[in-house]
Design goal:
Helix content is 61%, strand content 10%. The protein starts with 13 loop residues before the first helix and ends with a helix. It is an alpha/beta fold.
């Protein structure tokens, strides 16, 4: 006899309840549409008055209020908070798309993007076009050459692979106008910034590093590092205005500080992911079989590893091989791995606990934030099944 739960057909008494839920959901969608219309008006006012897109005080008050109301309604406040955080994110993204932080009266610049048909080149093209600028694309498959594009441009952005960056800078730099801006978007900053300064004569030089990949769904909330090396014409303010108008978090830094940070943020983490992936491959592990027994953390690790190896090997190689801090960081990673291997194989619980305590102490208060935010991510992942 078939167990009732094994049938693909829902019990008849569920159907009217599902219909009611559908009707309520449609009402919620209509309310969200109405909310979006109000957000459009908000964006217009913010653009006219110069009030920023994000108001942290307002967001905090809103979330506190919705949490209180949720509790009064017998709903879980943390669930309602999660819902409204997504709604707030969508609101900010909508405002950014409408140019809420873009001044009404802007002077259009001619922006040449060298490598404009590549992933990050396309992101830059969309970003600066949305800000009201004229875009020139020069790439391997365009009739417009790198030099001709640069000669016509107020702003030239180098968006080619890392290995080609210095060569292209040396090619186009001498053709930059004195009062123009030369930028790059590579993941290391010391050598590109020095090359841009050396290849130009008085041209403003700003190195940037978008701290995200070209496949992101939204630019709102993304981070970008900015190294303003030389600027006698106000280009930094112009660039910052555009970036803020799209909801970017702008990190003003130096080439040295940036590259040291990237040796950990990128080199160390990428290498660790590659070690895990290579080990999985060498062990002959069947990922699908292990996922039957997965914990949320293991699933996150495997998702990130698989995502990593599904992307460009040349990109990850360039990131790790062109950072001056790579050798120091990877030697330390090797030493830490050997230390932990020895501790575990010796079954030395005392040393393990000491190591664990030392690392925990090093992370300090960030551990509390990490527990809260990672729990949020885990909950969302589990919800998706």
């Amino acid at each position: 006899m078939e167990h009732p739960n094994e049938s693909n057909l829902p019990p008849p008494e569920l159907l009217p309840l599902r219909a009611r839920i559908d009707d309520i959901d449609h009402q919620i969608l209509d309310l969200l549409r109405q909310r979006n219309e109000v957000v459009t008006e908000v964006a217009s006012i913010k653009q006219r008055t110069g009030f920023g897109i994000r108001d942290f005080i307002r967001e905090r008050e809103l979330l506190e209020d919705r949490g209180i109301r949720a509790k009064e309604c017998g709903l879980r406040p943390e669930v309602i908070e999660s819902l409204f955080r997504v709604i707030l994110w969508a609101s900010r993204d909508r405002q950014a798309a409408l140019g809420a932080e873009t001044p009404l009266e802007t002077i259009s610049k001619r922006v040449a993007i060298i490598g404009g048909n590549g992933g990050m080149g396309r992101v830059m093209a969309r970003l600066f076009k949305d800000a009201g600028n004229e875009i020139l694309i020069a790439d391997l498959d365009t009739t417009l050459s790198n030099i001709e594009a640069t000669k016509q441009a107020d702003v030239t952005i180098i968006a080619v692979p890392i290995a080609q960056t210095i060569k292209v800078i040396e090619e186009v730099g001498p053709h930059c106008k004195t009062d123009s801006l030369l930028m790059d978007v590579t993941s290391t900053k010391k050598e590109p910034v020095l090359a841009m300064c050396a290849a130009t004569n008085g041209t403003s030089v700003i190195g940037t590093h978008p701290l995200f990949g070209p496949s992101v769904h939204s630019l709102q909330g993304q981070r970008i590092a900015v190294v303003c090396e030389r600027d006698d014409h106000g280009w930094h303010d112009w660039l910052a205005s555009i970036l803020h108008s799209r909801g970017f978090t702008v990190i003003d830094t130096t080439a040295k500080e940036h590259d040291e940070a990237m040796s950990v943020v990128q080199v160390l983490t990428h290498q660790a992911t590659e070690i895990v992936g290579r080990t999985i491959q060498k062990l002959g592990v069947d990922i699908h079989k292990t996922l039957k027994f997965t914990s949320p953390i293991y699933l996150i690790d495997m998702l990130m590893a698989a995502r990593h190896f599904a992307q460009s090997a040349d990109l990850y190689a360039s990131i790790q091989m062109n950072n001056s801090e790579t050798e120091r960081v990877l030697n330390t990673l090797r030493d830490a791995g050997e230390e932990l291997r020895e501790i575990v194989l010796d079954k030395d619980t005392q040393r393990f606990n000491k190591m664990f305590s030392e690392v925990h102490e090093h992370f300090g208060k960030f551990s509390e934030q990490a527990l809260e935010q990672s729990s949020f991510l885990i909950d969302r992942l589990v919800e998706r099944g």
